[in-house]
Backbone:
């Protein structure tokens, strides 16, 4: 099976439920605990991965503790 997350408008829910009911032999509904705890879990994950990559490739500077507080004090 292929797993995909979908988002849909609230007013489309009845149509989606009808589609799922008509195709229940081919569709499995799985609750995602990550989305229950944080509806934006996957968006945040992508953002964090981009930030980590930028730090690793040097396109974003990573400040150590002293550098950070020095920058804050000089604002």
Residues:
């Amino acid at each position: 099976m292929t797993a995909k997350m979908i988002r849909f408008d609230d007013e489309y829910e009845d149509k989606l439920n009808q589609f799922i009911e008509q195709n229940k032999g081919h569709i499995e509904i799985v609750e995602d605990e990550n989305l229950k705890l944080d509806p934006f879990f996957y968006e945040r994950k992508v953002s964090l991965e981009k930030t980590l990559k930028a730090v690793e490739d040097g396109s974003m500077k990573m400040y150590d503790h002293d550098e950070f507080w020095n920058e804050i004090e000089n604002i």
